[in-house]
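Example with several molecule types.
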Amino acid sequence: MMKKMFLICLITYLFLLSGDVTKAVYAQNPVDRQVFAQAQRVSGDRFTISTKTFKGARIYAVKQPSVAVLNEIDKGLTDLFAVARKNGYRAKLNYSDYVVFIARPDRLKDGEGRYSPDLAIPTNQYAGSIYDKGGYMYVAGMVLGYNPGAFIICEHQDNLARVSEVVRFEGEHILLYHNDRRRYNQTADHSQGGRHPILQ
Ligand SMILES: [Zn+2]
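Resulting structure tokens for the full complex:
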């Protein structure tokens, strides 16, 4: 009986503790609350790590990301801003305009055996398309919100260049949303065509 009580208390305690961690992470930036909840829903992960890249993008992660990964995120945004300026876009060109969630991958390799840490998400509008794997599909990244601009990617141990590529690609949707709504609408849904890179 005592043992059972202890176990229940322990579970409650752990629950409260993890709740506090989440609260502490929120408190760093209340504007991230909504996308934070969305990131947890999409991935099923708990983002207990909160940090920033050197250039100021906000990062929430399951595990502390390496300096190399943080630099790849900055590089992806740098590439994005460069091509955005070339297209005459002016909004959302600050690193601090972006929030990146780094989730645990649901797979490590794609169908051809290449290293490809991806998230499994419900198919929705992609149902029946080539992306559909039976109710779900694998994605390298996904936009979570536009104010602040937020998206989710997966942890990478290898092929870190893929991180900057995914950041640049997900960032394109957010950037277009704020700078060119017509082009955003044309390219937001990849089942209707429109592939990355959108901006040349
Ligand atoms: Zn996309």
